[in-house]
């Protein structure tokens, strides 16, 4: 079952926020959106925990990203799977990079937090 429109919009905005360079460089802001048990299967094939993601984002090259094909699926009360595509635009004029993304968001103490994220490189969407 898809999330209602207000929840879908909220989760879309949170995912979009996580793609913003200013937020990605802010360790406290990133930490606030990730659950303590957060795990990511990165597009590199590596597995990251919350602390590793926060540290890696501090050294990330700033790039612009956009979201397309955003969908939600309620897995249980207070647990939502979101899936979408991301286009990463490189500043050096290289071709854009496309990826499929999925996140599991969980309502924790009245705040939505990501418990799982996966990025998979793909061809143009």
UniProtKB/TrEMBL annotation:
Every DUF4440 domain range: 14-114
Signal peptide: none
SUPFAM superfamilies listed in its UniProt record: NTF2-like
Domain of life: Bacteria
One Pfam family named in its UniProt record: DUF4440
Descriptive protein name: DUF4440 domain-containing protein
């Amino acid at each position: 079952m898809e999330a209602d429109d207000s929840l879908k919009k909220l989760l879309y905005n949170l995912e979009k926020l996580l793609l913003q360079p200013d937020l990605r460089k802010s360790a406290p802001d990133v930490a606030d959106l990730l659950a303590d048990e957060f795990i990511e299967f990165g597009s590199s094939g590596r597995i990251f925990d919350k602390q590793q993601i926060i540290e890696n984002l501090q050294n990330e090259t700033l790039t612009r990203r956009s979201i397309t094909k955003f969908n939600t699926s309620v897995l249980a009360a207070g647990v939502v799977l979101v899936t979408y595509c991301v286009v990463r635009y490189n500043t050096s004029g290289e071709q854009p990079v496309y990826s499929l993304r999925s996140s599991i968001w969980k309502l924790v103490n009245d705040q939505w937090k990501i418990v799982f994220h996966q990025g998979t490189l793909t061809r143009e969407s």
